[in-house]
Amino acid sequence: MTTPPHLDDDRLTEKGLAPKGAGRILVIGCGALAREILAILDRNGLSHVDLRCLPAILHNHPDRIVPAVRTAVAEADGYDRIFLAYADCGTGGLLEAAAAELGVEMLAGPHCYAFYEGTPDFLARDEIDAFYLTDFLARQFDAFVWKPLGLDRHPELREAYFGNYRTLVYEAQTDDPALTERARDCARRLGLAFERRFTGYGELATALETLDRQ
Amino acid sequence: MSDEDDIVLSELDDEELVQQMHDDLYDGMRPEIEEATHILLDRGWAPYRVLTEALVGGMKIVGEDFRDGILFVPEVLLAANSMKAGMAILKPLLAETGAPTIGKMVIGTVKGDIHDIGQNLVTMMMEGAGFEVLNIGINNPVDKYLDAMKEFDADILGMSALLTTTMPYMKVVIDTMVQMGIRDDYIVLVGGAPLNEEFGKAIGADAYCRDAAVAVETAKTFMARKHNQMSA
Questions:
Q1: Max CA-CA distance within chain B?
Q2: For the DUF1638 domain, which residue ranges apply (chain A) (predicted)?
Q3: Class of residue B173 by CB neighbours under 10 A (exposed 0-12, middle 13-18, buried 19+)
Q4: How is chain A split into domains, by residue range?
């Protein structure tokens, strides 16, 4: 099945996803969650929910997330309600504070890795030497990890970055053998052990499904 | 085979060679830094002078360009690896020649955090500036910090964190020092990508250092103040 152009990974990484401009509720989310959010909305028949995604690459620049979210909320026009499909995402509580100030709800937990697995389970594991990939990050490994860290030009830096890590944990949202192999290859490139953990959509689905009842 | 445009380091005069070392550090050219370090030593330069003028001077430029967004982490790491290679040659000689020591620092990444790139850079720059540094590595609980500070007879405690989820642990360490009545015996410096000055103040650190160069300058300032207080 071919991916529609607006859900192309490179596009979601750099530009995000524009809203359709129709619906009572607007979800403003990370581009790394676009396909997953649309799948959840679709399977639950949540046609009253519109989606705008900010560029996924903000994941690598947490300091830019809060200003981008503030702008997106200010630009949201004609919706009854806004929901942020972001966790803390490295903002150190600043996104939560901004969301409270703006009067919008958001996802709980530190990262997408946490809410996909279930935040309590994720925190209980306390895996300090695990490096996580999701479906999106496995597909976009080069854009989010390999190139920004300069490993494409200087593979000798791998030890400096990943020498203290032990395992690459691939949290799979879907059953996709080709993507699993891709994630396994990412682990090999980083010199880490590989573990696949099927999570489905986890707390992202739970949170979005409540939009049906409100 | 050498190309006619290649620079022969041994043919450069001292001033040109130091300038070339700054350029080579900037470009992360480790073998060239090692070669030039040996050349300066062979010409009778004191190890401390090679360290400060050639290596630290070069890394200062790298640090400034990193701060200004001209260089990025990979380039800084390559430069640091080159400086480290030069320092490996100088270190035994510095020990023999009794280079000045400004103060002693224990540095480590906090519990739950395995990221050590920043603290390794700080360690190197502090050593280059004349501090003795005990780097206790990653994932340090409060007791490990306290034991190291005592055993090493440290003046300064440096704590590092890369994660927003682990940086609050710095306050646990400082609060424990307060409870034990030893907080004012040490200069506490904190750093790491998600931190800021406000956080440093809120947890009771003496200063937040946004990069390795700032850490060195801050440590020097606090040590000078400490000496002044002691002699007053």
A1: 67
A2: 53-207
A3: buried
A4: 13-110+202-209, 119-198
Cβ atoms of A190 and A158 within 8 Å: the answer is yes
A92, closest residue in chain B (CA to CA): B164
List of chain A residues whose C-beta atoms are within 8 Å of the C-beta of residue B116: 164
Nearest CA to CA, how far is A156 from chain B (Å)? 9
pLDDT of residue A213: 55
Residues listed for chain B:
232
Cα angle A34, A37, A39; round to 5: 105
Model confidence pLDDT, tens digit, residues B203-229: 999 999 999 989 999 999 999 998 887
**Look-up of token digits 């830019």:** A64
Interface residue B141 vs chain A (CB under 8 A): no
pLDDT at position B19 is: 97
Instruction: Look up residue B28 and give its two tokens.
Output: 């992360």
ipTM over 0.95: no
pLDDT in tens, B166-187: 999 999 999 999 999 999 999 9
d(CA B218, CA B222): 6
Buried b (16+ CB within 10 A) or exposed e, A65-87: bbebbeebbeebeebeebbbbbb
- Mean pLDDT score, B97-113: 91
Question: Hey, are the CB atoms on A157 and B77 less than 8 Å from each other?
Answer: yes
| CATH superfamily, with its number, for domain B104-231 | Cobalamin-binding domain (3.40.50.280)
Q: Give the mean pLDDT of chain B.
A: 93
pLDDT (mean) for B134-162: 98
Q: What is the DSSP string of A25-44?
A: EEEEEEGGGHHHHHHHHHHT
Domain B3-97, what fold? 1.10.1240
Mean pLDDT computed over B57-71: 91
- Distance from the Cα of B120 to chain A's closest Cα (Å) equals 10
Say if residues A171 and A199 touch (Cβ distance below 8 Å): yes
This prediction's pTM = 0.89
Please name which of A83, A32, A88 lies closest in space to residue A201, comparing C-alpha atoms.
Answer: A32
CATH no. of A13-110+202-209: 3.40.50
Q: Collapse the DSSP code of B204 into the 3-class scheme (helix H, G, I; strand E, B; otherwise coil) and give the result.
A: coil
What is the rounded CA–CA span in Å between residue A163 and residue A23? 48
